[in-house]
Design a protein that fits this description.
Rossmann fold; globular; single chain; about 270 residues; 9 helices; alpha/beta; binds S-adenosylmethionine
């Protein structure tokens, strides 16, 4: 087993394998993600039989395995084949391979799949996305009951109630603590060139609401439980839908072009 763990590494998830060994015992975040799971699991139904779960950015499958152990049928996606190799192997070690379906996919590909899920598990991915609001919009169309969401954040827990409207001259308020704000990382954070964004707490909640999620509780720092809600569209619902369809390649123009260029459909 030790050789296989070595061959499949490096590991981001520290899995406690059935033989007592661990995949990443010296993890910089401690016993990760077991330490996160212990904060979240009291907020989940202890029996997830009959629930379907979508684990986005499943990595080595720690959460997929735990959710499957609770009885859920899990679909786990990741864009990185190295992590999916780890996850498939780990699911087998824990005897959960029949309950978890792994797919190599981008989060954006979910816009082109018909399935919806009782629970969407969306942890540790948002800040890696070039298009974070598009990611949230796509995911909002996938969940029936709840989402467990986590993101790296910028410091600051303050929240100010944004005004219903304001003059252009009032933009100084945007520099006040508690204004929803997301820092852009042009270069690197923690030596990872795919860390693009760090929203503050107010921004996380505002983006969630804007994309059709109601944050219901915050079991720990940077972790949000959410329920789907309808978006208060302020009369721009059609505009939002048109933008969503264009951004996900489903607009009329995209469809007519793929019709005229059948190669696109078969490439
Ligand atoms: C920081 S890890 C988080 C892993 C796990 N969800 C957790 O919370 O421990 C980010 C994971 O998301 C995956 N990922 C990043 N961008 C993605 C994308 N656009 N589509 C699908 N997966 C993505 C990475 O390959 C990686 O496994």
């Amino acid at each position: 087993m030790h050789d296989t763990v070595q061959q499949l590494g490096p590991w981001f998830h520290n899995l406690h394998l059935p033989d007592g060994s661990q995949t990443a015992p010296g993890h910089g975040l401690g016993d990760f993600p077991n330490n996160k799971w212990l904060q979240i699991e009291p907020h989940l139904p202890s029996d997830l039989s009959g629930w379907t779960v979508l684990d986005i950015g499943c990595n080595a499958g720690f959460y997929s395995v735990e959710l499957a152990r609770r009885g859920a049928e899990v679909t786990a996606i990741d864009h990185d084949p190295r992590y999916l190799r780890q996850a498939r192997w780990a699911a087998g070690q824990f005897g959960m391979e029949d309950r978890i379906q792994f797919r190599q996919m981008q989060i954006y590909d979910l816009a082109h799949t018909p399935e919806t899920y009782d629970l969407v598990w969306f942890m540790g991915v948002l800040y890696h996305l070039r298009y974070p609001m598009l990611g949230l919009d796509i995911v909002a169309r996938k969940a029936r009951r709840m989402m467990v969401f986590q993101t790296m954040t910028a410091p600051g827990d303050e929240v100010i109630e944004p005004p219903a409207d304001m003059d252009l001259g009032g933009r100084g308020r945007m520099n006040e603590p508690g204004w929803p704000a997301m820092a852009f990382i042009e270069r690197r954070l923690a030596n990872d060139p795919t860390n693009w964004w760090a929203p503050n707490h107010a921004c996380v909640e505002a983006m969630l609401r804007s994309c059709g999620w109601q944050p219901t509780s915050r079991p720990a720092h940077e972790i949000y439980l959410c329920e789907p809600k309808s978006i208060a569209d302020e009369g721009i619902g059609e505009l939002l839908e048109a933008e969503y369809l264009a951004a996900t390649g489903q607009s009329e123009i995209a469809s007519s072009n793929s019709h005229e260029n059948p190669r696109c459909a078969t490439d």
